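dude i think i finally got it to work??
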Amino acid sequence: MKLSVLLAATSILTVSSAQTIRTIRSDPLTSGPSLEIVHYYDGQWPTGIAISKSGRKFSCFPAGLDVLNANDGLNGVFQVAELTSDSTETAYPNASYNNPPSGAVNRLKVPPVTKGDTNHLLGVQSVVVDEDDTLWILDTGRVIDFEDPTHPMLDSSAGGPKLVRVNMTTDTVERVYTFPTDVVFPVSYLNDVRFDRARGFAYFSDSSLEKRNGIVVLNLNSGDSWRHLDDAAQVHAINGTLPFVYGQPMYQEAGLVKPGFITFGTDGIALSPDKNTLYFSVIGGRFLYSVPTDALRTKGNDANAQAQIKNLGEKGISDGLEVDSNGIVYAGNAEQGGITMYNPATGFATIFVRDPRISWVDTMSIGTDGYLYFTVNQLNDLMAIYPGEGVPLLDRRQKPYVAFRANVPNGGTKIT
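look at this
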């Protein structure tokens, strides 16, 4: 009896040992072109990156998403900087323009609000170099402050949200565009911008956490601005969307309010090479949408614009978007640790690149050198994101944050 048991156990061990040497298919985690590290961010937390024709690089550091980026008048933090080496940044266009006197918050108001300061940067979410090699700075006019723990992202004030045009030859501000409060609301959050310089228009995404989402259009010649796609279902986060990044769920926190699903709406936007199509997406959703720009350039008749929105299918959870000269649309794919590319000619989305170092691709910018530049900033580990268990309001990011670049396929380059 004992001998038979011993023989059976030996047989099981033999089979078990044989099984351990077999190869089991596993996720390779990497694909596509190799990544080159462009910049290490050892200090402030970045979102945007922009590349000039000569190779100058710029980033922004929004005070509306990270309280450590908020200027209090003494800490000397900046909203925009030029990347001056592989790990250093210098305030741009100068330190003064990045330092509002006494800080960015108006504490004379109850509750406090972000200042309506047209002459200084307050909470910059995006920097873009357009086809004419002009640098544009998009200031949301909103910052984080915990004086009111139930509403940490302070409302903006008139004059705070603005678009700034900078001459990179002289490093000086050439023009500042502001918006009426019925176009950019106090709870708006202008997230990204794209330009059609030939026609003289700029298009903005409003990703308002308070669900006042839509597209803002600006006439660059007259300075007039208006909204489109307000209340369209496609510009709002899809309720119940739960991204998983590095195996961790992303619930949204807002101060002392119980964590819930992501409410960030319209975020990434991009223009086709002929500037006739605007692509957009929301963070709280996986779909890519498009709308003809001629429907947006007409003030009013928003029903006409909404009727022309197309759902192009899923492309993954993403933040910013970018388009190359071949018309390929690039979107971060946080859940796959990579970047997706959508081909309008085929209607298919495929993977451009995957790498274990990629968590959250925030902003992308294609240079005239044929590289796609992008920031990986661990937004999924911000204090405002809750992983479903453990201590809330915990900052789980680990420096350095990184900017990478990868070769764009098939000779693609920056749209000019």
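Confidence is low (pLDDT under 50) at residues 5-13.
im so relieved honestly
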